[in-house]
Design a protein that fits this description.
Radius of gyration: 19 Å
Low-confidence stretches: none
Number of domains: 1
Largest sheet: 9 strands, mixed
Number of strands: 11
Helix content: 25-40%
Distance between the termini: 50 Å
Strand order of the largest sheet: 3-4-2-1-5-6-7-11-8
Mean pLDDT: 95
CATH superfamily: Survival protein SurE-like phosphatase/nucleotidase
CATH topology: Stationary-phase Survival Protein Sure Homolog, Chain: A
Bound molecules: manganese (II) ion
CATH class: Alpha Beta
């Protein structure tokens, strides 16, 4: 089984080391094509207005100056052209990709791209109790990742489906198959700062909080200390509204 490993935190991210270990437990044919720099929040974006560079770092290790989606496309179109991967693993992200996060997430979007290419694709993310630099703990993913991926690969995989896995901070209580939750939108908070020349600049200051936990959502699984396994698909059509719209036309 050929495995392509990618992420959105960048080729030097500690979570990539964890995912490479998970992949190595499943196969000895593991390839890494990951962004040269952090691409968190890149979503499913493509680089269209500037050239992409492919840097060879080892026999099966490449960095792309581009987005996670660029990385999957580069892997399929320029690196693994003769023998496509059988599985794409994306992560392990530093932080959860829960609820509406999946639309912002470069980690999940790399798996979306793999899914569009007809390859079984799984996104893996680690929720942490402490995000301080040097305190990041990927041990729940490291401990359970290979087993969770193996169990997921045991299903008769439908086309057009990717799987989003989130690991809670330890201790892990078990595994739960979940649906995508939603948070309350809340107030958008922009953190305004001033640069050394006196001009203002801004950072996103995360303002959304978990809403009332839905039954068997990914958010609730994290609350309960459970590993969350959510099947996702890319058809965003809201079928229930089609008839109402059609009646207006
Ligand atoms: Mn990230």
């Amino acid at each position: 089984m050929r495995i392509l490993v990618t992420n959105d935190d960048g080729i030097a991210a500690p979570g990539l080391v964890t995912l490479e270990a998970i992949a190595a437990a499943l196969s000895d044919d593991v390839w890494v094509v990951a962004p040269a720099e952090e691409q968190s929040g890149a979503g499913h974006s493509l680089t269209l207005s500037q050239p992409m560079r492919l840097h060879t770092l080892g026999a099966r290790r490449f960095a792309v100056r581009g987005t996670p989606t660029d990385c999957v496309m580069m892997a399929l179109g320029a690196v693994l052209t003769e023998h496509k991967p059988d599985l794409i693993l994306s992560g392990v992200n530093r932080g959860g990709n829960l609820a509406e996060d999946v639309t912002y997430s470069g980690t999940v979007s790399a798996a979306m791209e793999g899914c569009l290419a007809g390859i079984r694709s799984i996104a893996l993310s680690q929720v942490m109790a402490d995000y301080s630099v040097g305190k990041e703990d990927f041990s729940p993913a490291a401990e359970h990742g290979a087993d969770v991926v193996t169990r997921i690969l045991g299903i008769d995989w439908p086309s057009g489906v990717l799987v989003n896995v989130n690991f809670p901070p330890g201790p892990v209580q078990g595994v739960r198959v979940t649906e995508q939750g939603f948070r309350d939108y809340g107030n958008i908070r922009m953190e305004k700062r001033t640069d050394p020349r006196g001009f203002p600049y801004y950072w996103h200051s995360y303002g959304r909080e978990p809403s009332t936990p839905g039954h068997r959502t990914d958010l609730e699984a994290m609350h309960d200390g459970m590993i969350s396994v959510t099947p996702l698909h890319l058809d965003m059509t809201h079928h229930a509204t089609m008839a109402a719209l059609a009646a207006r036309f």
